[in-house]
Each structure stands twice: as C-alpha cells, then as structure tokens.
Amino acid sequence: MKAKxxxxxALAVLMTAMFVVSVSAAQLTDVDPNGKTxxxxxxxxxxxxxxxxxxxIPDVVDFGELNIPPDDAxxxxxxxxxxxxxxxxxxxxxxxxxxxxxxxxQDANVNDDQKFYIANKENASIKFNYDVYRATGDNVNLSxxxxxxxxxxxxxxxxxxxxxxxxxxxxxxxxxKQLYGENIADIAGDYSGYMVFFSxxxxx
Amino acid sequence: xxxxxxxxKSKKSTVIIIAAVIVIIVAxxxxxxxxxxxxxxxxPANGVVGQITDNWDPGIEEPSSPKSGTQIPGYSKxxxxxxxxxxxxxxxxxxxxxxxxxxxxxxxxxxxxxxxELLKPGQGLTEVPLTKxxxxxxxxxxxxxxxxxxxxxxxxxxxxxxxxxxxxx
Lengths: 204, 169
What we know:
The complex is a heterodimer of chains A (about 200) and B (about 170).
Chain A: H1 2-31, E1 51-57, E2 77-89, E3 97-105, E4 116-120, E5 127-133, E6 151-152, E7 155-161, E8 167-175, H2 184-187, E9 191-192, E10 195-203
Antiparallel strand pairs in A: 1-2, 2-8, 3-7, 3-10, 4-5, 4-9, 5-8, 6-7
Chain B: H1 2-34, E1 70-75, E2 77-80, E3 86-92, E4 99-107, E5 112-119, E6 124-129, E7 137-149, E8 159-168
C-alpha cells in the first residue's frame, strides 16, 4: 500500500512537471522566442547576433587635384559622386522598417563643429570644408544638401533603405573658392577627409 | 517461510520507493530547468570565444558580383545573460572587401566592450569576449568598423558604425 501510494505520488509529480514543460515550450516558441513582450526595432526571424544586412559605403573622400581659382567671383565647385547601397538585407519588413543611414565627418561633434573637412596630411590644422548632397547633377541644391539638416549624435540623416539593392548616389562638393588668396607654398600637399557612416534598423 | 516472504516483499517495496523518488527528482529538475530557473550559461558558438577565423561567414548571401566600395555588416539585435563574459555576435570583414577592419563593440555611453586585431577580408569571429559584464537591461550598442587600407601603414579610410539593440537577460 505504501509503495502504491508513493508510485501514485510519483506519477502525479511527473505529469505536473510535463505540463509545466509543455506550457513553457509553447510560450517560448509560439508566442515570443525570447519570452519577452517588448517590441524593439529588430528583424523577426533573425537569430540574435547574426548579420541582418550589409551596406556598401565609399572607401575614400577624394577630390583629386585642387586648384587655386583666379578670382572669388564664383565658387569654382569641384564635384565628385559617391554611392551607398543596401547590398544585402535579410528579413526586413519594408512596410514598417528601414535601414537608416547617417553620415558625419570623423571629427564632427553634435555640440561643436559639425562640418565635413579635408585636411592637409602634413599639417592637419590646414583644412577646408566640403558639402554632402543626396543627389547628383541638376538636383544638387540646398534642398538636397545633407549637412543643411540637423545633425544627430550618429550624424546627418542620409537615406533609408527598405529593399535589397536600394542605392543612393550623391555628390560631394568642394568649393575651390576657399583656396582663393591662399599661398600655394603654405597649402600645397595631399589632403584627406574621412566620413563615418552609421546604420541601424529603425521603425518608420 | 513467512519471514522470507515478508523480506522479499520489503525489498520489492524499497526498490519501488527508490525508483519513485528518482522519478520525482528528475521530473522536478527538468521542469525547473526548462522554466528558466537555472539560466543556462552561454555556450561558445564555434568552440572558442574570441577566435578569429579565416573563413568567416556573414550568414547572409553575399553579392554575386562584388561591388566597388566597402561592405559593412549590420545587425538587428544581440542577446546575452547578465554576468556573461562573451556575446554571440558575428563580427567580420566580408571576403569581397579590399580593405582591412579594426572592429570594436561599444555601448552608446562610450563603454568599449571589445576591440579586435586587424581583420583582413574573410576574417571574423562569431563570439566576442567582453571586457566587462553587463547587468540586466536593454542597451543601444554598435560595432565600430574602422576601415584601413591593406598597406604597411594601414592608411585610414572612411569608416562605419552598425547600431543594434543589445538585450541582457
């Protein structure tokens, strides 16, 4: 009798434990993979820690050879184009999400100097600024100037990608007028500038 | 005779009782484990935490025709348990790139959790060793990809930051 009672209790415990396990499994797999209810800006279906997308950014800021203009009557703009692309995307819902891309100068500070610069490689204190546009050709104007907008800590908003293969072709514009009146001996040399592209999945 | 019979019965009961107790213990332990009472320690993704391999796979289909420019991986989220000393996060340099990466993992407040050595194209790791543990919570984090030319000076190039949500359970 005693043994029978113990067996009965054991079976009851076993069945209770199995019930708890099956409920927990349903909660974890059918309702919320992480057992959490908060919804954040992430892609459902991607395993945490996996690569969710790949964007392609330009390697360098290269205006080539710059010239001191003969006068300051014009900006003597020198333009180079650049391309940013959503090369691969996995699982994004384009109806509600995008890959937001921001850009800033590597030394820009939201509370201080926010401009884009190229600096003399031998003497970094000699530097000149340039503008960034999210357009090319005839569409390069104040309304498409990236750095005319407000800058955030992560940079100026550049574009939002919703689909794989989306691209943004833009323009970097250097106003050579900045060089007018400068002594070539003082400013001659190679110049470099570095942009930082910040990307993240954001709800729209 | 009667005594032998009683002894046998007694032995049988003992065996049954012991078996039942074992069943109870196993059942309770299983229920507690699967309900999350014992938070499982994170297992290394590919054997060794922090090991950089030459055949890093971003796990996402790479372009069939390599594009000009630098490919930068981005993330949705990552998860770990409070007190963990590593994070499962696939950090690497896509094989079609022509530049090197110095990758680091940072929080929005500037805390640096990991810094890599130079990652050449095709190199990366899937589990990142952390310089400090984190408390439970949700953090804004980012992988900073500092891009450099593959020359002797590692000449700096444009760089990128990939932001994501870090969930600490």
